[in-house]
Specification:
Blueprint lengths: L2 H16 L7 E2 L2 E2 L66 H19 E3 L7 E3 L5 E4 H14 L6 H14 L3 H7 L10 E3 L15 H18 L7 H16 L15 E2 L5 H11 L2 H22 L9 E3 L6 E2 L21 H12 L2 H17 L37 H10 L7 H13 L7 H12 L7
Helix pairs in contact: 2-14, 3-4, 3-6, 3-14, 6-7, 6-8, 8-9, 9-11, 10-11, 10-12, 12-13, 12-14
Length: 473
């Protein structure tokens, strides 16, 4: 199931048009920005106001212990499998040895790399994470690939060369459409989709950026600086700082709200990558990332769980009216689909992002968020991750009001929850009460390894975290 293509291809057209980027012409299915963005939000449907829950004071998170990496041969600070830094919180997979876990990951990595990493036509030395037979790559995939490769250094002797090839493509294809409105800093963001010939999917090379892809690219660059240093072909640290500055200018509101399009009062919950934000704060010294951005993300997610998903703890793909009366999107605001108010193709990734952050930060707020969600998920699936549905309404039901049956249990029409179970595994890492779920999720994911785009990258990254092989820059 090509989750990401169907959501973004039509979605950016609506997002750009609705926000003042008059998408009056389409080139190869990609919107062309033709007017400056407006700061006025697109009017949302009038719904009965819902009281905002009173939030408890937010204490500072307890810092996780940090160990300096031991010197490593070949200029590699964190060789794969070394586990120099132990997680400060939560649990890992416990029913296999480290050697068994690592053997599973390296076999999966080799198969993925052979299937997905290809040269970028027209970009000398450029590499790409192959998307499908219609498009070469998307920035989301480039970020995933860069994160995977930097952690696999030490096992893969060509990891740095592969990383540099991916970065070469990223920088060769900037989001020129955003630079029209935000200035040259936006050129440090990537055009969100490339055609098979390596050019922008916008015929006039005025592509927009996708926030999630650029967030992962920025984090991968910080990790590359920590892994290899920044004295080679690329100054990874400076490239990271450039991308972080561009993200703040283009994709963040002053109140800390993320917005992945010029429709600035709409936020995608899967862009709330709080672990990335902490890393950005440490790298830049800008506490906006570690306070304002994380606090805003928590307030929005807590509202979704408390007001719109009581006793279930889910959150939608998109939230609208983020500065006034935040509500789950009724559809047509983010990816321009009618599923935006469900936990669906985007929000299924949230346990991965927040679980990864928790094992390092110990932030009780995000443990609370995940506990609510995981309590529902474990009960709904009878503690069997293989029973996870394709998505959920916020009341926990699988009712599709259109009759299209888009919410169902796995194995219908050949579908399997490959990119849902792996993130759910990381959601369970927050507490020993979910140890059985974590172990079962690993076993299912390992038995159902994918090399197709989206499923495979998410599986591998989540396996790296669950096995104790992840580290922060």
């Amino acid at each position: 199931m090509q989750r990401r293509d169907f959501t973004k291809a039509a979605g950016l057209v609506g997002m750009l048009a609705g926000a003042g980027f008059a998408a009056t012409r389409l080139r190869k299915g990609k919107p062309v920005a033709t007017s400056a963005p407006t700061t006025a939000p697109t009017p949302a449907p009038t719904l009965a106001p819902t009281p905002v829950p009173t939030l408890a004071p937010t204490p500072a998170p307890t810092p996780a212990p940090t160990s300096a990496p031991a010197p490593a041969p070949g200029g590699i600070a964190y060789p794969f499998g070394a586990r120099y830094v132990s997680y400060g919180y939560g649990v890992k997979v416990s029913n296999h040895t480290n050697a068994q876990l690592d053997a599973s990951i390296t076999a999966h990595y080799d198969a993925w790399k052979a299937a997905r990493i290809v040269p970028t036509p027209g970009v000398a030395g450029g590499l790409a994470d192959r998307f499908d037979n219609n498009y070469l790559t998307v920035s989301e995939g480039m970020g995933y690939a860069m994160l995977i490769v930097v952690v696999m250094a030490g096992y893969d002797s060509t990891a740095r060369a592969t990383f540099d090839g991916l970065l070469t493509t990223v920088r060769a294809r900037p989001a020129r459409g955003m630079a029209q409105y935000y200035g040259a800093t936006a050129l440090n963001l990537m055009d969100w989709r490339l055609d098979l010939d390596g050019t922008s999917s916008d015929a006039q090379d005025l592509g927009a950026n996708a926030m999630d892809g650029d967030l992962d690219i920025a984090l991968a660059l910080l990790m590359a600086d920590r892994q290899w240093g920044s004295t080679g072909t690329w100054n990874y640290r400076q490239e990271a700082l450039n991308t972080i500055a561009a993200l703040k200018a283009v994709n963040m509101r002053p109140d800390g709200q993320t917005h992945s399009s010029p429709q600035i009062h709409v936020s995608r919950t899967s862009d709330m990558m709080i672990g990335h934000f902490r890393a950005f704060a440490e790298a830049t010294g800008d506490t906006f990332w570690s306070t304002t951005a994380i606090d805003k993300a928590y307030s929005l997610i807590d509202r979704m769980q408390t007001v719109y998903s009581a006793n279930v703890g889910l959150m939608p793909d998109f939230i609208i009216n983020c500065d006034t009366n935040p509500i789950p999107s009724p559809g047509g605001y983010g990816d321009f689909t009618d599923t935006e108010g469900w936990l669906y193709a985007n929000a299924i990734r949230n346990p991965w992002r927040w679980g990864t952050d928790y094992v390092f930060s110990g932030d009780w707020r995000w443990k609370s968020v995940l506990q609510k969600m995981m309590n529902f998920m474990v009960a709904d699936c009878a503690n069997d991750p293989a029973r996870m549905a394709t998505g959920y309404r916020l009341d926990g039901s699988l009712n599709d009001p259109t009759g299209q049956n888009r919410l169902y249990r796995p194995y219908l029409n050949g579908w399997g929850p490959y990119a849902s179970i792996a993130p759910g595994m990381l959601g369970g890492m927050i507490d020993a009460n979910y140890q059985g779920w974590v172990n079962a999720s690993w076993d299912w994911t390992d038995a159902n390894r994918k090399t197709s785009y989206y499923d495979s990258e998410i599986q591998i990254i989540c396996k790296l975290v669950a096995s104790g092989n992840w580290w922060k820059p």
